[in-house]
Amino acid sequence: MPDGWRLQLAFQSAGPSCSDTQFSVTTNVLRLLQTGVSCDVFLGAGKKMTVWNALICVTFVMTFVVAVGRVNGALPANYMRMSANQKQDVLWKQVLRNPYPMNRLPTVGPTAANFSKLFVPAFLKTSFTWTGDEMPPGRARILHNYGVVCKVDLDVFSDSPFSGVFSTGGVGVLRLSLAQLSNDSFPVGVALKILVDGRNSQNFVLVNTVEGQGTNRNFFAKTMRNIFPPAGPYGRELNPAEKAFQQAIFENLPGGPLDHPADFNNVPLYEQAAVGSDGRNVSTVVAPYEISLRPNPALAYDENDPADFRRHLVAIPAGTLLYTVAVKRTLDEDDGTVIGQLTSRSAMVASPYGDEVLFFNHAKKAWQA
After folding, report:
1. Are residues 338 and 310 in contact, defined by beta-carbon separation less than 8 angstroms?
2. Taking the mean position of all CA atoms in its chain, how far away is CA 334?
3. Which of 132, 221, 239, 290 is the most exposed place for a label (fewest CB within 10 A)?
């Protein structure tokens, strides 16, 4: 369906505004996130309900036609104590266990019940507080639910002036995905997990903009960053999803002002600069304010190609330069300094483990000069 996704639900009455026993929801997820009102809800007999009342109803749904399953991971008991290379091997074996056939790639979007969790600060808080490499039990990926994963090396140049992972580099896994498959604006995102000897991994979550690339369907058309502009014009009132994320950051995360991001559209880099991939703590942390992954121009393809993006990405061979890594020390710098590159060390694979289980923590400690 070109204008979004449609989900049929059957539910028991949850109050006077939800008295109908069946309805259908047709929406575009990214537009809903951006505007908070771009949704049509039809109750039958020509009646309509506002999207927010509909989402409230969905939260009280008693019986669903569609249920979400989960592919269980099986990390060894000593996983945390392993070296980064050993962890990479373990995760990669999980990714390879049951890859999707290319002629049967999944496309079903999240259920409305799961989507409504984007407006619950306590649910969003887990993105920052959970530090495992697999999803918490029972948690579903709501946005960016389909993508591909590959093994990578982050190679940092020896003259890098930064600390931690920005000095040591490391091995890890990279996930490339779309916020929603059916969205016409092609909202690209990448998540990078650098594995650490005997410690929790260090993760990067990057996009260009939540509004996507418009009609350009070339996955490698834009630079990915940890800081991105909010959807819509600057200065506008935050939509309900953004407000929930702000509340998760400023009210639900423990600690003081330096223990949470500066804003909902800023995924900070202090934690990644505080430890190297060898597991050693840094005595003097020198963290960049912004990181940019600049795509290799040789990977570009026809921006008008309607094929599923995953078909393009799985054709990229191991040993390919994917992104050049540039950073800014402060917000005021005009241009970033190139400190390294990100190279694939395997083919890219679309699999249930990569889509449903692999987890990328959102760093929370604010940048410090």
Report:
1. no
2. 27
3. 132
